[in-house]
Amino acid sequence: MNAARAADALEPRAAGAKKHCTLGLDLGTSSAKAVVTDIGGKVLAQASAGYAVTSAVSGYAESDPAHWWSAVTACAREAVRAAVRAAGTWPAAIGLSGQMHGLVLASADGQALRPALLWADSRATGALRAYRRLGPAALARLANPLAPG
């Protein structure tokens, strides 16, 4: 997502918002969270929006990436609007954090092809056993401890 698209997702700068603040966004496993802080770190507003983690079969953990975007924009709008109303502030910076490792299979144009496989998905446990049998030299070269998800 580019900066212009992120700004458009919130709304045009509110008239009268003169002071700057920061917007923190966290894309978690089952919800997005937004927090607005002043430059000293005081929380001015916060919001969250949830989305489903589905498990069609035991051991599966999937989520639709389109729901992530909807949740992020909803809670960001709510938190920024509250900060504008309460303190007359507008974000000058955005900080991001996200859920643990996962897999989003995407088309050439960046569209998700299926629900994302989340870190809690354990269907690759058999492949992980094979990976661990590669031996110390191969594992050292790969330098990436894996988990089933």
How would you summarize what this structure contains?
By secondary structure, the chain is of the alpha+beta class. The chain contains four helices and six strands; from the N terminus they run αββββαββαα.
Walk me through this protein's architecture:
With 149 residues, this protein is an alpha+beta fold. The protein is built from four helices and six strands, in the order αββββαββαα. The strands form two sheets. A four-stranded mixed sheet has the order 3-2-1-5, covered by helices on one side. It has a two-stranded antiparallel sheet with strand order 4-6. A hairpin with a 3-residue loop joins strand 1 (19-27) and strand 2. It starts with a helix and ends in a 7-residue tail after the last helix. The mean pLDDT is 88.
Structure characteristics:
149 residues; alpha+beta; 26% strand
Fraction of residues in β-strands: 25-35%
Number of strands: 6
Number of helices: 4
The averaged pLDDT comes out at: 88
Q: Order of helices and strands, N to C?
A: HEEEEHEEHH
Quaternary organization: single chain
Give the overall form: elongated
Task: Estimate the helix proportion, in percent.
Answer: 25-40%
Using the CA coordinates, give the radius of gyration: 19 Å
End-to-end separation in angstroms reads 25 Å
Task: List the strand order in the largest sheet.
Answer: 3-2-1-5
In the predicted model, the low-confidence regions spanning at least 5 consecutive residues are none
The structural class is alpha+beta
Q: Main sheet, how many strands, which sense, barrel?
A: 4 strands, mixed
